[in-house]
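Backbone shape codes:
===
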Amino acid sequence: MGFALGAALAVAQGASQYGQALNEAEAYKAQARVDEQNAQITEKQREQVNYQTLDDRRKIAARADLISGQNNAAFGAGGIDSGSGTALDAAAANLDAYKKDSAMLDYNLGNTDMDLRQTISNLNQSAAANKQAAKTTKRMGAINSILSTATSIYPMKGAMKKVDKPSGGTTIFQKMTKGTTF
């Protein structure tokens, strides 16, 4: 195999190696885009949870008002004064239920919001790591393919020089077969 053919093969192998590195870098970039999109989707979910919580809070308040109104109507129809102990006990129980429902709603919102914020943070960190991995892979792929090509060509050039000098030096073939009989 001549020097030119060997060099051409080494260059082709280096180009192939670099192409593989570019493909791997593109895969990292694609994953980074997916992570960024998922972070945006999660942010939208977070907004929806907040809106849903506001809606639930309105429903709880409306239910408490409805129960209070029903109690007042029932006590009024029964001739019981709304300032009496029974009416006040019912109003206090209704208010207590409202406060418990509101507190549970706030607790659940806090946990859900914290989980979604953590998910968004994790996705953003993953996207940043994948972007960096893409840059590093591309850079290292270029360096590795150049070094691989150079280390494949350099010994060929040295061997060819020695082969071109029939009267001087020892060829690689001669070194490898020294002391071997055929």
Summary: The chain has a mean pLDDT of 83. The radius of gyration is 39 Å. DSSP finds three helices and no strands in the chain.
